[in-house]
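Q: Two folds, back to back.
A: First:
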Amino acid sequence: MDQSSQSLSSTAAPAALAASGTAQASHAEAWPDAVIAQGNPWQPAISAGIVMALIFALAVLGLSRLKKVPGLLQNLWEFTYEWVDDIGLQVIGPEGPSLMPYFFSAFVFILLSNLLGLIPYLMSPTARTDTTVALALCTFFLTHILGLRRKGFAYISHFFHILDASKESSLLSKGITFVLQWALLPAIEIIGELARPLSLAMRLFGNIFAKEILLTVLAALILKYFEAGGTGWLLMVMPLALRPGILVLGVLVSVIQAAVFVGLSMMYIGGALAGHEGHEEGEAQAHGAPDHGVQHLKHAEA
C-alpha cells in the first residue's frame, strides 16, 4: 500500500504541476485573447473591415459638410491629400496626380490600420503579414503593369541594357560583358525587383507588430501587478508611466510607416514609368536635356 501510494503521489505531482502550469499559461495569455476575433483566421479581414467602415464614415461626414471656410474634418482631408500629392509630384513628376487615387487610398488605409491597434480590444490589420503582403503585391503589380503599358517590350528589355557588349573593343571584354549583360546583371535586377514587395511587407509588418507587442506586454504587466496586490501595486506604476509614451510613439510610428510605404511605392512606380535610371540619363545627356524624373528619384532616395 505504501509503495502504491508513493507511486500514485509521484505520478500525481507532475500532473498537478502541469495542470497549474497550463492554467498559468492560459491566464497569462488572457489579455491578448481579449482582442476582438483573436485567433480567428479572418481576424485581419475583420480589422480591415472596421478600418474601411471608419474611412467610409469619415468620407461621408466630410462630403456632407463641405464649406468655403473648411472645418476641422475638411481641413484634415485636404491637408492629407495635398501632402501626399506634393510628395507624388516631387518623386514621380507631372504624372503623380493621375496616380493619386491609389497613393492616397493606400496612405489613408495604412495610417488608420496602424492607429487602430492603439484602441483597447482592437488590433492593427497591418500587424499581420496577410495585410502587408497584400498591400505590397498591389504596389508590385501596379508598378510593372504601368511600366509595360508605358514602354511595352522596352520595359522588359531595359533589364538587359545595363551594359552593352557591342561597344567593347577586345574579344575577351566582349565575352565577359556579354555574360554580364545577358545573364548575371539581369538575374540580379530581377531578384532585386522580387525583393521589393518583400521589403515593403516586412518593414510595415515588423514596425507595427513591435508596437502591438509593446502595448500588450505593458497591459499584461499592469494586470499582473494589480492582481498581485500589495507591493505589486507599487510595481504597477512603471508600466502605467511607460504606456502613454508608448502610445505617443505608436502614433509617430503609424504615421511614419504609412508615409514610408507610400513614398517607396511612388519611387518604384516612378522608376518604372521613367525606365532604367542609367539608360534614361544617358538618353537625356545625348539630347542635351536634363531628365527631371531621374532628378526627382535621386532626390527622394537621398
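A: Second:
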Amino acid sequence: MGPEPLVPSVEPSPEGEEPQLDANRLHVYHVALELHCMCSTLVASLNRIVKDQLERASLSVVLNVAEAGGRRSRRDKARYYAIARGSATEVAALLDVLERRRLASPAQIRSGRHLAIRIVQMLTRIHQRLA
C-alpha cells in the first residue's frame, strides 16, 4: 500500500457515490474509528472513570484526524495530526491500565494496543512528511 496523500484530491464523486470529506479518504481515519468502537465496548460501566477516559481519548484520535483532514495549511494539518497521535498514545497507556487492573481480556488488550500503535506509526509518518 502506498503512502497516504497529504491533501487528498477534491474531485467530484462518480455518479451514484456519496461525496466524502477528506478524512474519509485516509486509512488512518478508518483505523481510528475501529479503535474507538472497540474501546467503547472494553470496560464495564462499573469502572465509569476509566471507561469515560478511554472513550474520550479514542474519540479524540478520530476527531483530530478529521480536523486535520479538513485543514489546508501544512502547519495546521501537522498540529492536529500531532494531537491525534498524542491521544492514540494516551489510549495505549489506558490499555496498560486495563491490563494491570484486569479490566479487559488479554486478547482485547492486544487488539487495542495493535490498533493504537498502528495509528501512532501512521500519524508519525504523516507528520514527518508535513514537516
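Q: And?
A: The mean pLDDT is 87.
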